[in-house]
TrEMBL record:
One Pfam family in the UniProt entry: Acetyltransf_3
GO cellular component: cytoplasm
UniProt domain N-acetyltransferase: residue ranges: 6-160
Keyword Isomerase: no
Keyword tags: Transferase
Molecular function GO terms recorded: protein N-terminal-serine acetyltransferase activity; protein-N-terminal-alanine acetyltransferase activity
Protein name (record): Alanine acetyltransferase
Transmembrane segments: none
Source organism per UniProt: Streptomyces diastatochromogenes
Highest rank taxon of the organism: Bacteria
Family annotation (InterPro entries): Acyl_CoA_acyltransferase, GNAT_dom, Ribosomal_N-acetyltransferase
Length: 176
């Protein structure tokens, strides 16, 4: 475990240039999150609309030593007319990767969502080749559920994904 403290907080306007790096710089997005050029104004519009916190999902900035390192996000997945779960993800700047920041941030997000919403299930997925993210999810208390064949198109190829979940009653690690 690293001693590096990780904090989640709502986005501020001065975070927008950091968030936009994930849309404008392939090296910032990383090899598993770059899907080509996309709308560079989407973070600014979402921030202006609701501060990136809504009923169907949200985004929190991941911070350490008062420096924004990326974000965690969640979105509602409707399972039936009376049931939904959350699907979460994390995106970190290159300088924050490989330090355990992602595991700690995702564990904090899981705790936050279970504390403040009535969902039973939180899920996450990643590409089958993204071993670092699979380890991060497992350290954060997620259980691997299976392989999703041909689930994502990136860099000219269809790729397999891996599905993970954590249920409200599952034991969570005290820290990672």
């Amino acid at each position: 475990m690293s001693d590096e403290s990780v904090v989640l907080r709502p986005a501020r306007e001065d975070d927008l240039p950091v968030l936009e790096r994930f849309l404008l710089e392939p090296q910032s997005a990383g090899p598993f999150q770059w899907y080509g050029w996309s709308d560079p104004g989407r973070f600014r519009r979402r921030f202006a609309e609701n501060g990136m916190l809504g009923e169907d999902g949200g985004l929190l900035v991941v911070e350490s030593a008062a420096e924004p390192l990326g974000f965690v996000a969640w979105r509602k997945v409707v399972v039936s007319p009376s049931t939904h779960c959350w699907n979460i993800g994390a995106q970190l700047l290159p300088e924050a990767r490989g330090r355990g920041v992602g595991s700690r941030a995702q564990l904090q997000l899981v705790r936050h969502l279970f504390a403040h919403t009535p969902v039973m299930r939180i899920e996450a997925d990643t590409e089958a080749e993204n071993i670092a993210e699979q380890r991060a999810l497992e350290k954060a208390g997620f259980t691997r559920e299976g392989v999703l064949r041909g689930i994502v198109f990136r860099d000219g190829k269809w790729r397999d994904g891996v599905a993970y979940s954590v249920l409200r009653g599952d034991p969570l690690p005290a820290h990672v």
